[in-house]
Design a protein that fits this description.
The chain has 276 residues and is mostly helical. The protein is built from 13 helices and no strands. Helix 1 packs across helix 3, helix 3 crosses helix 5 and helix 9 packs across helix 10. The longest helix is centred in the N-terminal third of the chain and has 35 residues. The N and C termini lie far apart (91 Å).
Length: 276
């Protein structure tokens, strides 16, 4: 005898439309929690007025940040378990990428950010779990201070998180760059000089078929060369280009000729020197 199918669980009971705006506002006034999510699931957005709908969107965004913070802990736990098994923690990206259907580079970045945020940036992790900042903000801050000294990274983190909840992602990126420079100016100047030296010592790529257009970006924009020669970025059309109508004075408009009434078919195309 087959066992009876389990009865479907009832969803959250609908909320009185008159109380829905007050419930949304109460969710915004406290930290996000599973109970807050249950309250929002019972609210019909169509029953709210214009201002309450916007507040509902803001409350959902905070709940989303809380879930993102929970996912960071789960991703970090996968990395920790991989390291406990005697395997390099970065290899956890394969398991995460297969589960979330992510590209290897994206999976590696997600796992690295999660591991660093949980173990090295607890203040950022806390701000994400409480809905004060978004995942994009938390990930950018974690990436930006990864190569800094511990004391410098903590100072930058505290300075950025103080204003991050009121900033957009672009504003927070600029604030993070300013904080890195202001917290430790000598180190910032040293990193800048090292980056400039690496860029100066980088060998110029070999010239392509276009006479160096693929090479130095400065030459690509037509800047004068030091040897006085014509910049490679200023391209002179060759014979084949002129014959294909790409040279000056031989474009599509120049090839148009008035048609004679007694002529059948299209007007002849002007031939170049290489067509015979």
């Amino acid at each position: 005898m087959s066992s009876p199918a389990p009865a479907p669980t009832a969803g959250p009971r609908p909320v009185d439309p008159r109380l829905a705006p007050l419930l949304v506002r109460s969710v915004l006034e406290r930290e996000p929690s599973p109970e807050s999510l249950a309250v929002l699931l019972a609210i019909d957005p169509a029953s709210l007025d214009g201002e309450s709908r916007v507040e509902l969107i803001e409350a959902i965004e905070r709940i989303k940040a809380m879930v993102d913070g929970l996912q960071q802990r789960a991703l970090s736990a996968v990395v920790d378990a991989t390291e406990d098994a005697g395997v390099e923690g970065d290899l956890a990206r394969h398991e995460v990428g297969a589960a979330l259907r992510l590209a290897p580079v994206t999976a590696a970045h997600r796992t690295r950010v999660a591991h660093d945020m949980v173990h090295l940036r607890p203040a950022t992790q806390r701000a994400l779990e409480t809905g004060r900042i978004s995942y994009q903000q938390a990930a950018h801050l974690t990436d930006s201070v990864r190569d800094l000294e511990p004391q410098v990274s903590e100072a930058v983190e505290a300075r950025v998180l103080a204003k991050a909840p009121e900033q957009t992602l672009a504003e927070m990126k600029r604030a993070t760059a300013r904080a890195i420079v202001s917290v430790d100016p000598p180190a910032a100047l040293r990193r800048h000089r090292q980056a400039a030296a690496c860029a100066h010592d980088r060998p110029e790529p070999a010239s392509g078929r276009d006479g160096g257009l693929v090479g130095n970006p400065a030459r690509r924009r037509g800047r004068p060369r030091l040897d006085g020669a014509e910049p490679a970025g200023v391209r002179r059309p060759g014979c084949a280009q002129v014959c294909r109508g790409r040279g000056p004075g031989n474009g599509r408009a120049a090839r148009r000729q008035p048609r004679r009434r007694d002529r059948v078919g299209p007007a002849p195309i002007q031939r170049g020197c290489c067509s015979g």
